[in-house]
Design brief:
The protein is an alpha/beta fold. It has a domain at 40-131: 2-Layer Sandwich (Nucleotidyltransferase, domain 5), CATH 3.30.420.270. Helices cover 38% and strands 15% of the residues. A 5-stranded mixed sheet has the order 3-2-1-4-5. It is elongated, with a radius of gyration of 25 Å. The protein starts with 15 loop residues before the first helix and ends in a 7-residue tail after the last strand.
Length: 138
């Protein structure tokens, strides 16, 4: 009877190349998603509270327009003026007719500043506008 020699068998080795590939893919995924989420969060803006606020499904390619308390306009992380906002939104509206826009106005913002931005959105031909709110804290 012939027995196997256990000293001649090689141990199982851990393949590092596939593990490194997976780690890099995860790293790229988290960096890209963080980059997109960064545009929505503007720390100078505290959106108003609403009793009927609800979380809706996000659409791909949404444009986020922030209006700070001093009336300055931020479009996807960049400060823009009202004419610049209009030209950018018009070019987007021509390419994507059903483009969604989220308007995030600070609760301290003058109402006229938000209406001015809303007028620019309407002039650009965008009809799909949502206002960002939060639930009131109990």
């Amino acid at each position: 009877m012939k027995f196997r020699d256990t000293s001649s068998q090689q141990g199982a080795e851990l393949e590092l190349a596939p593990m490194i590939d997976v780690v890099f893919l995860l790293l790229i995924f988290f960096i890209v998603t963080w980059q997109f989420a960064r545009f929505e969060r503007d720390m100078d803006i505290s959106v108003p509270a609403a009793e009927e606020a609800e979380n809706t499904d996000r659409q791909t390619g949404e444009i986020i327009v922030n209006v700070r308390s001093d009336g300055s306009i931020i479009l996807n992380g960049r400060d823009v003026s009202e004419p610049e906002l209009l030209t950018k939104l018009q070019s987007i509206s021509e390419a994507y007719p059903d483009q969604a826009v989220i308007l995030r106005g600070s609760s301290d913002t003058d109402f006229q500043s938000i209406i001015n931005v809303l007028d620019q959105i309407k002039k650009a031909g965008i009809w799909n506008v949502a206002f960002a709110t939060t639930k009131p804290q109990s």
